[in-house]
Amino acid sequence: MLLHITNIPHHLSLWRKEIELNGIKKRYDVVVYNKQLQPFIIVECKAPGVELSQDVLEQASRYNLILNVEYVFITNGLNDQLYKAGTMINDLPRFDEFSGNG
After folding, report:
1. What are the per-10-residue average pLDDT scores of the chain (102 residues)?
2. Distance of CA 94 to the CA centre of its chain
3. Which of 28, 52, 66, 102 is the most buried (most CB within 10 A)?
4. Which CATH architecture does the domain made up of 2-91 adopt?
């Protein structure tokens, strides 16, 4: 849904890739890259019954310590929350608006 809404080409997203954080292997759900192939958005997906709590945001934010993305997006399929620099925002720019940055 995020890829469709923002017009992100599918080839600029990676799904379920493993990273190492403080010596522990972790697996993020989705990272979207800009046209310069820099990580731009991290997406943390939860099941519909899972509340989008501070714990979920902190999980995605820990991955961001390595990825250094501009946006963190958390979703349970029913509700979404988008953050920029730790602050919740309402709208993610379309891909053609952010692809020139970074």
Report:
1. 51 62 81 85 92 95 90 92 91 65 45
2. 14
3. 28
4. Alpha-Beta Complex (3.90)
